[in-house]
Amino acid sequence: MEYRRLGTDGPVVSRIAFGNSLTAGNQLADANALACVRAALDAGITTFDTADAYADGRAEELLGRALRGVDRDSVVVCTKVGRGGGPGPGALSAGRIATSLDASLRRLGTGHVDLYQAHLYDDSTPLEETMGAFADAVRAGKVRCVGVSEWAADEIGRAAGLARELGVPLVANQPQYSLLWRVIEAEVIPACTALGIGQMVWSPLAGGVLTGKYRPGQPPPAGSRAVAARGGEVSIRRFDFLDDAVLTAVSRAADLAGRAGLTLPRLALAWALRGEAVATAVIGASAPEQITRNLAALRTPLDPELLHRIDAALAPVVVRDPALTLSRMLRAASLTQTAR
């Protein structure tokens, strides 16, 4: 395992983090969810990501159970607020943050979280109120550092200014980022780099599409995330990753990777971790052996000519529009629905 500091002033994180957003308490039996965390620990993963909204709190509970008995100072526990209890007005209000944080700490079985992240931007709550509540949590010793998830560059900039005034360590942004989804490159990454904020990216394999398991013109494999009772909509279908044009381009990229002696998921994860902006990539797993396979990305040199060919193969379907940061996407969808 390799490790890197998250932002200028954040904790040292493992380059691969383990997340349980769609698995623990939802798609996996509890025993399997616990086994995946143990496999992550055995692999040297120290950074674990969850949220109050995942499986209505069950994901936090299972992570807490899995880490019971582990030296608390040896792991970086990250959770989020703003969607537990349902997104909407007041999702990041001071009252919601205080209540949700105490519930998260209880479910996780810990006295503090190392990184507490605002899950999507809340238009209905003054940003000053949200950041003030975060500052209160830090001063109370319940939170070490704070971050945001899927915020646009201007929103992050305003939050960073308030954090400085309040003396709050705002160190992280958690956006979606992959070979297919690059909306953070134009605005978010430059803004965060200037502010000393690190990227903790999610879905580096595009919800599993970059594993190559989904084929154009064929139904999704049985048991895959795309056909799961919960999870496919948020991780795959919302972003049109199962469109035949996308799957055809991914098949071309997989062939190129294979001719270079690499699997596509290994190459895709190594690609997401390249450069200085991304400190860690959050992966999920439905079986312990998937974690072991993903570690190979840390030992994968990226040939510039191969990357050029991969980029050319994927170019027609890569999404780059900064307006598609998830907060903005959901806001636009809400406004459209209201207009109807």
What are the SSEs and their pairings?
Elements: E1 3-5, E2 12-14, E3 16-19, H1 23-27, H2 30-42, E4 47-49, H3 58-66, E5 76-81, H4 94-108, E6 113-119, H5 127-139, E7 143-149, H6 153-166, E8 170-174, H7 188-195, E9 198-202, H8 232-235, H9 244-259, H10 264-272, E10 278-283, H11 288-294, H12 304-314, H13 326-339
Parallel strand pairs: 3-4, 3-10, 4-5, 5-6, 6-7, 7-8, 8-9, 9-10
Antiparallel strand pairs: 1-2
Helix pairs in contact: 2-3, 2-11, 3-4, 4-5, 5-6, 6-7, 9-12
InterPro entries: AKR_Detox_Biosynth (IPR050523), NAD(P)_OxRdtase_dom_sf (IPR036812), NADP_OxRdtase_dom (IPR023210)
Organism: Streptomyces collinus (strain DSM 40733 / Tue 365)
Protein name: Aldo/keto reductase
Q: What are the defining features of this structure?
A:
single chain, 340 residues, TIM Barrel, disordered C terminus
In a nutshell, what does this entry contain?
The protein is an alpha/beta fold. It is 41% helix and 14% strand. Helix 2 packs across helix 3 and helix 5 packs across helix 6.
